[in-house]
Specification:
The complex is a heterotetramer, with 2 copies of chain A and 2 copies of chain B.
Chain A: H1 18-35, H2 39-44, H3 46-61, H4 83-96, H5 98-112, H6 122-133, E1 139-143, E2 148-149, E3 156-157, E4 160-161, E5 165-169, E6 172-180, E7 189-197, E8 203-209, E9 215-220, E10 232-242, E11 246-247, H7 252-283, E12 287-288, E13 292-293, H8 298-326, H9 328-331, H10 337-365, H11 367-370, H12 376-390, H13 397-408
Parallel strand pairs in A: 1-7
Antiparallel strand pairs in A: 3-4, 5-6, 6-10, 7-8, 8-11, 9-10, 12-13
Chain B: H1 18-33, H2 50-60, H3 83-97, H4 99-116, H5 123-134, E1 142-144, H6 158-161, E2 169-173, E3 176-187, E4 195-201, E5 212-218, E6 224-226, E7 240-251, H7 261-298, E8 299-301, E9 304-305, H8 310-338, H9 351-378, H10 390-402, H11 406-419
Parallel strand pairs in B: 1-4
Antiparallel strand pairs in B: 2-3, 3-7, 4-5, 6-7, 8-9
Helix pairs in contact in B: 1-2, 1-3, 3-4, 3-7, 3-8, 4-7, 7-8, 7-9, 7-10, 8-9, 9-10, 9-11
The chains are: A alpha+beta, B alpha+beta.
Chain lengths: ~425, ~425, ~425, ~425
């Protein structure tokens, strides 16, 4: 693509600070050098090169532990105003590999509820940060409420079944739950973040070091995309936790949803940037009807415009959402019912746009879009996996009902 | 609804053979496909699981001989009035298990239709080729080697381009055609095929239908080379690769019919390809429905089964509704093809048939991609799990939407017919 | 494509009556509707243009007697094997000119189907009512007075609510039913109707089908009052208003069949209503296609006819493609209804028929609203101009999507059938 | 609706100044008092009350001539930074009546190319402002390029036929063109703004006082919506214009498209605010299935959430676009190819969202949505009329091809 992709999107440039631009630029260098330049090898020996690329990103650039407080050994991007920085970085990472972006998005999501101002908890940071400030690759796994089983009455979090329970006695907490399906990284997580219900069936959030006694990880799940991110179902059997590892702060669970939607929006938009570059190059070379370049055929040009349109809308919505996190005074707090609902709504729209953009691209590129070597189908599988993960039980319905409750005061739904 | 068999079908005009035929295929799917299909993705290169299943179908059940005239050891389906209906049923039942397997099978029959289906039966060629398929206990697979490296779908765009962009050539030397060219991506390439059907030109750059030629080329002939298969997002049971024809010499009667008729019969191939496509899409959708049915019955939101929540019911109701609608349309395509020789039918190569058939395929494959994607979302974190068998269909069916010229060509052909466009 | 008549139809099973019948109606549309339809919007209250057109159709061509048995002066269509096919053709041809006119006509026949269509013919009642329609030179219109002020579509939701929410009551006093209640919005109210078909309950709050009653109530009976018509976004040829029944006394045999059967027959009404709906939608779409065809042929973008631009062709090709798909589906609905008495048919009141019919209606009306809106956009600044006759259809067809319980009920019924939901 | 509708949307509140909020509040008072409180009368005697309401808005509040320079007698909201103010006002007007919003949107669009800093033309303002600063209701009509006729080769503006021609001799210009279809208000415009082609087939913009000799107005067009805004086809037969009335500034025509898309986005979002209030009230009263409120049924609640979602997205995109106009340094100039393309793209998305929101509302309200008294069907007709007007020849295609040209360097399309 001849133009710099960042110049192709309209959004308030002041939302992205100079510091952010510099960090994003170094991530872009990493992406070009470690992944995009090696695309064929990278596809063929994925597991190995994925891990090598992750290491360079995590330690040479410092993306692991990036948003932990400086005095815990992190880089200190732990203010709300860093939200635009986080998505800018996730976009650049995911432009090359959405799987690596996904790993970091989960990490940042979980840290958001205890490492970020104004809810920063120094004690927890002091305990958990060292895990991520070492020079070993670490992942975080997130377990949200979700499906229940017919015939069982679970405590509910906005309609979703909370199947992990926490019991408190003295200064200790005990976490239990079976066959819990994380959003990702269950197979190798160094830290689990679990929305669970307390004795009063109220939601709270437990932070569980991955090496705690009583954790069973089931077999690694074979799945559509995010190949490098190994997920597995988890059992917690009376896992003991210090009391401070359980966040009972009102609405922390809501914040997790909001942040997860924001950060995964950044991942999928990033993947789409990669797609846009690929399809742009391809349509400038491919000849159809025996004579014209594909981009110069009106029907194909209109499809290209569709691809751009979906990505540009997703980009704009993502930056708006990030700005709202950075300016709670202006937009409302990330734990408020409105931002909880709206971040899910915008998060879903971004994923829908991303999937549509990639689908349209594949329609244009046909077999080249479908073959591994084209580089598109991986993004398609990755983004679809993210989209499904973000859906609650019944797809888009829970997020819609959350909106109806907030905006129309719907009851009993 | 008692079972997925209640999705709409024109019961009043279904051949009595369809029911037992479906039962046999369904049984094969349950025994040979369902237990192993989760391993297919890793099996894309070796076909260790895939080939035995295919062999049981094609040799064991004899499907590979179905089109050949009875006189040469076949079933004579090429002469049946229910050819399209039975082909459709075969595709759908197979694709319920695995659409790539269904594709590999249909593609093998596909090229054979050019000279084994009435009114275009070439008995000399049929007799020549029959032993490979009918008189054997080995799997024999055919490959329709159509697409070329440049221009992708241009070859399918016969309405506009009339074969002008073909670069694979055939030159007559005495009693022998000498074939040279390079083909890309056809189903059953990548080392699978024993026989190729090859569209080529006897006069490069010409758009005269007389210069279009369709040759049958056995894979073991000298000068035929195949590449390794490509790795893809799905459809592992279908191998795709490159084929080179380097001064391949075939007897002159391996050209299926001759000047003019080859081009006409080739256009008819498109209709059969579209028929198969909707069959694969429907089979996948029906299987997703089965899985979704259990999922929404057993899992809950707000402690009620998903299907008892009005809003979720709205979503899944639309999925099932679209399946029913697509089924109706698919059988309309069956009707169009099987009535080609009858009072109210149109020739398969007519503009009307091709445009309407493309329109149905475009529609059904869009609904399939969309609805299976939606089904994944309904299943949330379980949607992308291979153990649920839905995401596999999601990866597979995307290809259906893309092949045979993809969405753009479907749209252009429909516009051309419905609006009498002249320059598209 | 030579003309819009080439949109798909199952030519092999169309009744020989259909062609001449369509020709008569089409002729009436050209002469009595097309020249005046642009004035209909302002005519919503007076019906100065609308009523004469209706009269020529119903009295002049005799449509108002079509359902009555031949013995009582009718055409006997209620006993025909092609009832649905001919009704559909009538709706489609009329709606090509004006869907509200088509609606007004179908709605008049609609209520009559409850006792004039086999196997539910009530000959005593038929004989009693026939003179109003058959032995007259005046327009006679019937109105199915269904919806009540509370709950809107609840009355159509027989599957779940079983008439429980009905507030219009019928009380038997000797040989006379005494009817009390308030109905809202039915087609042909607002002062048009001469006869009402009135669903009511003999036991308020009951969901026992035996307590559901369907009465025929002549408009001139004492205690029947009608309001002025409402003003609406379109559909001017259909008047809607309120009707009050205040101790209206009708002979006991004006109840169409009796306990149990009334409820069953009422469910069948839904299927006929859905059939009409797709007919109206199709007629409107076909007319829009005709107009669009001329528009995209004569107007240019980049100095080429719109239809010769590949991207615009993609858009209009999809519109025409959807019309073809909707036509196929509409005829499937025709088949379902006309095969109700035949070996492969299902009763009209069966869950399967209702769910599948609702699904088709939901789909076709969605495509209609969407595509006519798109056609307006293709026409840019001319899209909203009444002189182009497209925007009128746009305003009209929206109503099709909304009535009979609208989208939500269609979705719920489909989900209920396909997923065996129990509490929706 | 119990809540203040402005509190239901997330967007950076700082984008709307205090001054804007105050003016918007007075427009809201006007809307509530002059239109919404009288809705039934207003529907029944539309022409008369429409005109009365317009007068109060135009003169008591000052919306006519609002963006003309103060020294020409206007209110002086003629800086680029006033773009958010303009859409805020248009939203509030259109919440009550999109037709009145439309009239003003056309007025502001046309003024944008000669009355706004930095392209302010004092001479033209001096000549044309008095027309709009008097106490008589005035409308402005806009004639864009569009359809050509088969067999005629017209000069093109980005593929669209330019069917008005301007000839220049000495200090005079002569404008000609037949059967031109304005975007609106052709029947009574005091000023026509016409994109025409000069002798070199380059686009320029002519400003034509409505009383100029040589103008023929055809019959008033009966149309889907915008009932109060009378449109008619126009002939110009050698209409003489002073040279300064023809703007030859490079890319002025592009700016017109950009502004028109922005301001009509404001109108349609405003109409949707009205819709949201209506459906919210209705769903809180309506009972279904014999027992529940409609808003408490999950399926209906999901539809309500859809309605909100479409409106919220439209609202957000509109404010983003307005912000881009207000900050050309940040986003790019409104005459740049990128903003030209993107404003059309976002403008179209806003109209699509608006129509979808109203369609979904009607699906829920059924006959009440379709009957005039419900107040929804008018908005539906108005917004659809706006949407079609904004479409070029062939619907969405021209805007998509504009995007493809800008983003993918598509040629020859």
């Amino acid at each position: 693509m001849k133009k710099d992709i960042n110049q192709l999107f309209v959004y308030p440039k002041s939302w992205v600070s100079t510091e952010t631009k510099e960090i994003a630029a170094s991530v872009r260098q990493w992406a070009n050098k470690e992944v995009i330049a090696k695309r064929i090898d990278y596809q063929e020996d994925y597991k190995k090169l994925f891990s090598e690329a992750r290491k360079k990103l995590a330690f040479d650039i410092g993306c692991q532990g990036l948003m932990l407080p400086e005095d815990s050994g992190g880089f200190g991007f732990n203010r709300l105003t860093d939200a635009p920085l986080l998505i800018s970085i996730l976009k650049e990472i995911s432009r090359a590999d959405a799987g690596i972006g996904f790993v970091h998005a989960l990490e940042y999501t979980v840290f958001s509820i205890f490492a970020i101002e104004p809810v920063m908890n120094p004690e927890l940071c002091g305990k958990l940060a060292p895990l991520f400030c070492s020079k070993t690759l670490k992942t975080v796994s997130l377990i949200l409420p979700g499906f229940g089983k017919k015939g069982i009455d679970d405590p509910l979090f906005e309609g979703r079944s909370v199947r992990a329970r926490i019991q408190t006695a003295d200064e200790k907490c005990m976490l239990s739950g079976r066959d819990l399906r994380p959003i990702g990284c269950g197979a190798d997580a160094a830290l689990f973040c679990v929305i669970c219900s307390d004795a009063n069936e109220q939601p709270c959030v437990a932070l569980v070091p991955g090496d705690s006694a009583g954790i069973t990880r089931h077999e690694t799940i074979r799945k559509t995309g995010l190949d490098g991110c190994d997920n597995a179902d988890i059992d917690f059997e009376n896992v003991q936790l210090p009391k401070e590892n359980v966040i009972t702060r009102n609405r922390a669970a809501y914040e997790l949803y909001a942040w997860l939607n924001l950060l995964l929006a950044g991942v999928s938009v990033g993947a789409c940037m990669g797609i846009l570059e690929i399809v742009s190059a391809w349509s400038g070379k491919r000849i159809i009807k025996g004579k014209n370049l594909l981009k110069d055929n009106p029907l194909c040009a209109a499809v290209l415009a569709d691809v751009y349109e979906e990505i540009a809308i997703a980009w704009l919505l993502t930056h708006n959402l990030a700005n709202s996190f950075a300016n709670p005074g202006e937009w409302g707090n990330s734990s408020s019912p409105l931002i909880f609902s709206v971040s899910q709504m915008l998060g879903r729209r971004v994923q829908e746009s991303a999937i549509r953009a990639i689908n349209r691209t594949m329609e244009l590129m046909a077999s080249e879009g479908y073959a591994t070597e084209g580089g598109v189908e991986k993004m398609w599988r990755d983004v679809k996996t993210i989209q499904s993960c973000l859906c609650g039980p019944g797809g888009e319905v829970p997020t819609k009902l959350d909106v109806a409750k907030c905006i129309f005061d719907s009851q009993t739904i | 609804m008692k079972s997925f068999d209640e999705f709409s079908r024109p019961l009043d005009r279904i051949s009595p053979m369809e029911k037992p035929f479906r039962a046999v295929i369904r049984n094969w799917v349950e025994e040979e496909v369902m237990p192993y299909r989760r391993e297919y993705d890793e099996d894309w290169k070796e076909h260790r699981f895939i080939e035995p299943a295919m062999e049981k179908l094609c040799v064991g059940l004899g499907i590979q001989k179905c089109l050949f005239p009875k006189a040469f050891g076949g079933w004579g389906l090429g002469e049946s009035d229910s050819l399209a209906a039975l082909t459709y049923a075969l595709c759908e039942e197979m694709a319920r298990g695995d659409s790539a397997l269904s594709l590999a099978n249909l593609a093998s029959l596909w090229s054979l239709t050019t000279f084994l289906v009435k009114p275009n039966i070439n008995r000399r060629l049929a007799k020549e080729i029959a032993p490979m398929f009918c008189d054997t206990d080995k799997l024999c697979i055919c490959c329709q080697a159509m697409t070329e490296p440049q221009g992708g779908a241009d070859i399918e765009n016969m309405g506009l381009l009339k074969g002008r962009t073909l670069r694979t050539t055939a030159r007559l030397e005495g009693d022998v055609w000498v074939i040279n060219g390079h083909k890309l991506w056809p189903t059953n390439s990548g080392g699978t095929a024993n026989l190729f059907g090859v569209p080529c030109t006897t006069n490069p750059g010409s758009s005269d239908p007389d210069d279009f030629a369709y040759m049958m080329v056995p894979a073991h002939f000298k000068g035929v080379t195949q590449s390794e298969p490509y790795h893809k997002a799905g459809m592992a049971a279908d191998k795709n690769g490159e084929i080179w024809f380097d001064n391949v010499r075939v007897p002159s009667w391996y050209r299926i019919h001759g000047p003019g008729k080859d081009a006409d019969v080739f256009k008819q191939l498109i209709s059969f390809g579209l028929l198969g496509s909707v069959g694969f899409a429907m089979g996948a959708m029906i299987n997703v429905y089965e899985i979704l049915y259990d999922f929404v019955s057993g899992n809950t939101y707000a402690n009620k089964p998903l299907k008892e929540n009005d809003a979720i019911a709205g979503v899944i109701g639309r999925i099932a509704g679209d399946i029913d609608i697509s089924r109706i349309l698919s059988y309309e395509l069956v009707r169009m093809i099987d009535s080609r020789e009858k009072p109210f039918g149109n020739p398969l190569s007519s503009e009307e048939t091709i445009a309407k058939a493309r329109n149905i395929k475009d529609f059904v494959s869009d609904r399939t991609v969309e609805n299976i994607g939606k089904a994944m979302d309904v299943m949330g974190v379980y949607g992308s799990d291979r153990i649920m068998d839905v995401e596999k269909h999601y990866r597979d069916v995307k290809m259906i939407q893309l092949w045979l010229g993809g969405k753009q060509l479907c749209q252009a052909e429909a516009a051309r017919y419905f609006f009498n466009c002249e320059t598209l």
